[in-house]
Design goal:
about 400 residues, alpha+beta, 2 domains, 5-stranded antiparallel beta sheet, 4-stranded parallel beta sheet
């Protein structure tokens, strides 16, 4: 996307430098990074940044509309609805495929969105290590909206801690030390001082929750939960000692209901040149004649599970609950990043923080993912190089 920077980076790249970078990256938390880290970052020029930010802000206009909650009531499964929902999500992430349009211009196209946190800690740590080993121009940064490291971490601290002592705030997850994203939990603990806690470790007393602090051993009240539990996974587990769907005396950061409100469910309501046409399956009277140019997605799943890429009429006929599926026009990812063999495709995730009582969320940081398969994801990129987790360095 920035030809001069790409040419210089690829020319300077060696397998030895990459291996040294990985060794450095893994040294602080050995064994904690299970996902593949790509050989390269993505360099994002200012004009492309303006396009993708315009799309994000347009979507946010819909989310801050007073009628948004009513519009998305059906998105929350009855069994997963949690009491004491707040006014807004504390986190927004937007995934864009980087594509080329008919005029040959590079443009973003929205793939998915989430009212749920992402790797807000790891994306501080990892690009810093990358800079130690590769020449990244100083006027390019992973931080957005004018942030630098200090201002970003300060805002992240305000959103997650809300002014409370770190010991009264936990990062809640199912088996956090077994999750593939656990590196992010450890980075968050280092930066904010909050402990990753498994759902099975919670103790309940009336409406209050407690946990055992790892260092002091003290039974400590939980006043605020940085929620990383995905209910789709929770529902597959045996019943936990504490049902977090209860009316509990805790603040949720972010509240579980927003995971559903801001999700694939929202896509059919968005109208923007950088958002592909999306329809609820039960509202389609006649399937598109070019069905092969669409993707079929279940509303209530994550990490690409259940997605049908090469859709046939028989796939539509087989759906028993069409109100819980969407049909989305395919996004033709561009073969964008020159690599030693075939070019890599890119997906960029724009990550927003939303402080309590602020009228809108603010763009903060990003991540990127490189792929050479049909979809972004490990199972579509087995045994490939120059693919995996990455970061966008945006021109200041």
């Amino acid at each position: 996307m920035v030809p001069a920077l790409r040419k210089a980076y690829n020319a300077a790249f060696t397998r030895e430098r990459y291996e040294a970078f990985l060794k450095d990256l893994h040294s602080k938390y050995p064994g904690a990074i299970e996902f593949r880290i790509a050989e390269t970052p993505v360099f994002i020029p200012r004009e492309f940044a303006d396009r993708v930010i315009d799309a994000c802000e347009s979507i946010i206009d819909l989310i801050v509309d007073p009628g948004f909650k009513q519009l998305t009531e059906r998105a929350i499964p009855t069994a997963d609805r949690v009491p004491n929902e707040n006014d807004h999500s504390h986190f927004l992430v937007f995934d864009f495929g980087i594509c080329t349009n008919e005029a040959g211009e590079v443009e973003p196209q929205l793939i998915e969105m989430q009212g749920f946190p992402s790797l807000f800690g790891f994306q501080v740590y990892y690009p810093e290590i990358l800079r130690r080993h590769f020449a990244i121009p100083p006027d390019y940064s992973q931080y957005l909206h004018g942030h630098d490291r200090e201002s970003y971490l300060d805002e992240l601290r305000q959103v997650i801690l809300g002014g409370l002592p770190p010991e009264n705030v936990i990062l809640l997850e199912l088996k956090p030390h077994e999750q593939k994203t656990r590196i992010d939990f450890y980075c968050t603990q280092e930066y904010l001082g909050i402990q990753p806690v498994c759902l099975t470790e919670l103790e309940q007393e009336g409406r209050q929750l407690f946990y055992r602090h790892a260092i002091s051993g003290k039974r400590t009240q939980i006043k605020r939960i940085y929620n990383r539990v995905i209910f789709d996974e929770l529902n597959k587990q045996e019943k936990a000692p504490v049902d977090i769907r209860q009316d509990l005396d805790v603040e949720w950061i972010g509240h579980p209901n927003w995971f559903y409100r801001i999700s694939k469910f929202t896509l059919p309501f968005i109208h923007h040149p950088y958002v592909p046409k999306t329809f609820f399956l039960h509202e389609i009277k006649q399937p598109p004649a070019d069905l092969e140019n669409y993707v079929l997605k279940p509303l209530f799943s994550f990490a690409g599970t259940g997605v049908v890429i090469d859709v046939k009429p028989s796939d539509l006929d087989a759906i028993k609950d069409p109100e819980n599926w969407i049909l989305q026009r395919k996004v033709p990812y561009a073969d964008l990043i020159p690599t030693p063999d075939i070019p890599a495709k890119v997906e960029i995730r724009m990550m927003y923080l939303w402080k309590d009582k602020d009228p809108r969320p603010r763009l903060a940081i990003n991540l990127a993912r490189l792929s050479k398969g049909k979809m972004i994801g490990v199972r579509y990129n087995q045994d490939k190089e120059w693919v995996g987790g990455s970061v966008g360095f945006f021109e200041r």
